[in-house]
Every structure is written in structure tokens, then in C-alpha cells.
Amino acid sequence: MTENKKIIEAKNVSVQFHVRNRLLTAIRDISIDLYEGEVLAIVGESGSGKSVFTKTFTGMLEENGQISSGSILYNGLDLAQIKSNNDWAKIRGSEIATIFQDPMTSLNPILTIGKQIVEVIEKHQHIKGEEAKKHAIDLMKKVGIPEAEKRFSDYPLEYSGGMRQRIVIAIALACKPKILICDEPTTALDVTIQAQILDLIRSLQEEYQFTTIFITHDLGVVANIADKVAVMYAGEIIEYGRVEDIFFNPKHPYTWSLLSSLPQLGQKGEALFSIPGTPPSLFKEIKGDAFAPRNPFAMKIDYQLAPPKYQVNDWHWAKTWLLDERAPKVEKPEIIQNLHEKMKNLVKKQNLEEV
Known about the structure:
single chain, 355 residues, alpha/beta, Rossmann fold, 2 domains, 4-stranded antiparallel β-sheet, 11 helices, 12 strands
């Protein structure tokens, strides 16, 4: 596997928030590299720190939050050291853009769709007037807005949720970013529209060759869009690898649990798998493996010492004591054994149902 040039290099990043006179450590010592042109999916339960981590790339942490340690190198610039809004304005949009879960948080309800796209084009591409309008309509067509010329003057409330999300994607593309962060962009949409938006993002990524970070709690989404996957739990990355590594050779019990929770693996008449317990409080110092209290395979050492990073292959690593040569041999749950064959059969079944 040939790697492209590193575009972001995060080293030992920690993020803390001051909450009611208490300190909450939301991100704990994360190190990860992002490469040009790849699609990295960051997955994990709600509250695992996925969105907080990527907000450090655009300076969008809430006022009570700060990067307490580490560096985030982007084209030689340490994003962790940027303090002023003026300096961040040079990064946001034109270098690193974000698509959020709810498009209405990104769109101004009292401005027309066309005006909002044109404003971004004029700011980032230095095109004015009719030329900017033409470019905006071209972008609307590219993201699949029917009758784009006619709908140019509509307001956001006249668009459906899926169409609004397409407009947010068009606005992000108007900035011509090097990196596009997609923060659960399909969660609020129905299944059919989700698939359309995912196909759109994938095709645009291939056309424009921007680097993509895709944030989701749904591993089912990841299979169709990602090159690599970072699995997050309690503010840290606990497993990282190529999408085939994570799906077909996962090593961390938390990753096993996420995969076991895939609705596609559910059997009619049986309850879907759910992970017992709750994540730890991030107000407290975490001792050992944060997942240990919820892990049926936890050993004594899991409650005492944090596991180191064990390299599985050149691209795949996991933080679990089960990979230590002294650990007992444990098989992953039966539901995710032979997952490759199960997923292929599910695709065949879905294709037959669509005929």
C-alpha cells in the first residue's frame, strides 16, 4: 500500500474543558497521521470525543475548552498554537472545511440559497457578479439540486433536509478546501437519502481529491466510504487501521462490540446486541484500560495499567492487553467471525431485493 504525503500530523494531543469549577479531559494523548487524498473515518459512541478532536483542526472548541498539550502540524504550521480568529480565518473554509450534522446550523434562514453560495465564492475564489452566480449554479447542479437556476433564489426552509445538506456540501466545495470534515452528515436523514449523500461525498472526493475525515457512530457507514478507520473510546484512539483491518481482523474488544452492534447482523426475532454499561466519567483520572469495566474479556492488568500500542501490521495497531504475548488467547465474538462472508451475503441479498 503506497502512502501519500502527510497533510496533518497530530502528536500527543489532549483537550480539557473547565466545567463548573471542574476539569474535564475530553481528548487524551491522541497521535495520528492523516494523508493527502485519503478518507479517514473516526468512529465511536456519542461522547467518545470524535467531534471535539476534529474541532482542534479548525479552532472551533468552545470558549471553556483548550488544547492542553500536543501539536497538530498542518503543512508545517502548528494549529495547536493558533490563538487569534484572524489567523483561524485563513484556515477555516479555504484550507479545512466542515459539514455538520444539521445543515440548518450552517445556513442562514433569512438569506437565499444562491446568495449564501455566492458570498463564499466571492470570498474564497475572488470571483464577482454574474460569474460568481454562474459558478454557484454549477455547484448546485454538481451536488444534485434539480432545476438549479430556478431554485437559486429559494430560502433554506423551502428545501428538504437532504437538499439542504447538499447545499452545505456545495458551500464547502466553493471554498476549495484541502481537507473536508464530515461530522455525522447523514444522521438526521432517512436511509435512502443517507445513501445518496454518502455516494455524493464519495464521488466528489474522487473528483476533487480533497482529504476527508468522516465522523460517525455507525460502522455500517464506514464500510462504504473509508480507507482507514480510527476507533475512539473515552477520548482516545484505541484501534487504528485500514477499513479491511478493522472489519475483518479487529483486535480491541470495544471494536468487537461496535461491529457486533451492526443492525445488519441482527437476526429476526432476536434482540440486537448492545454494549452493556456506560463510558467512564472524563472528570476523573482513568486508570488502566478505560473499556475494562464493560469488557467481558478484561483481565486484572486492564484495571491497573493502560495498555500500550501493539502493532498488528504496518497500518494496523490496537491498545489492548489481549495482544500481549502473555495474554490468554481469546476468540472474537461469534457474530463477527467470518464477517467478510456475512457482509458479502448481505450485499447479495440486498441486490436481489432491489431487482
